[in-house]
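Write out the bound-state structure for (R)-mevalonate.
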Amino acid sequence: MPGQVGPVVASAPAKVILFGEHFVVYGVPAIVAAIDLRARARISRRDDELIRIRAPDLGISGSFSQDGHFLPELGREGAEGTLKPIFIAVREVLRSLGVSSGLDVEVRSSIPIAAGLGSSAAVAVSTAAAVHWLLSRRLDRELVFNAALEAEKLVHITPSGVDPAISTYGGLLRYTKGVGIEHLKAPGQLELVVGDTGLKRSTGALVSAVRALRDRRPSRFSSILEAAMELVAEALQALGRGDLEALGELMDVNHGLLCSIGVSNEALDRLVHSARRAGALGAKLTGAGGGGCMIALVEPGMGQDVARAIEEAGGRAFLAKLSLEGVRIEAAP
Ligand code: MEV
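---
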């Protein structure tokens, strides 16, 4: 087997969805950007066949046998559920290479968890990339995306794939489920403020709630989906023209559509309205909603004012820089 003993370190970025979350699950394209918060995975070989995974930031660790049996170590309560998607990402890469190596995996992340910024996808993507590099000295982005998508199925139940796609490829993308990605050119001055409500939520539960709404009200849901499709088409045109005002307006409309499918809440609405009042060009929730984060598009230089307004309204705010680079190998001695 080619490759090296290790350790290999890979990192992958978080994301914000500018347009199309939830609707992307039903075939509407999403417009999504990678941002400069990253998850890191450090991998080395073991002498046995165990996949030992440590997440020191969360105080949990444990080992999986190659067939997925879990042996807890630290933080027993809930540790298996948190570590399992990481094991799935490893297992998919091992399967694709036809090997059953034992590995030590350590993951760390500066991405808020369960906040709509794609932390689970970034962890799975960086893990898959580091394992693949360790065992084959190659970074095959398609393979990494597919391995992370399998991991995401455990977390998000029926994921569209938008989170692992942006974390793998980086930059600004149009992502269509089952079709793939198209790189978009960002207008130079895309200044975004992220506001975190601090409320954790489950993407899987929110996606399931939207599915239940679709089954209960199919005709209403299909009208909303049509509006979302049109909205994304308009947003793509506005991006192409570099028309920030139109983009902001469309973000407001997108937030309205997300409210109409029940995934916003009072905390998100409060932050969205405070950002608009402080002069944002537009604001909306980002990701699955139900808590987590919102984003505001601002005129260049206005970020601090809007961030302050979000904080005064009870959120934690930061300016997000776009990250052109998706997954990358950080160290492979
Ligand atoms: C989560 O970041 C985005 C959702 O549309 C779910 C998905 O597309 O997998 C809510």
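---
The first strand starts at residue 8 and ends at 19.
Residues 1 and 135 are 7 Å apart (CA to CA).
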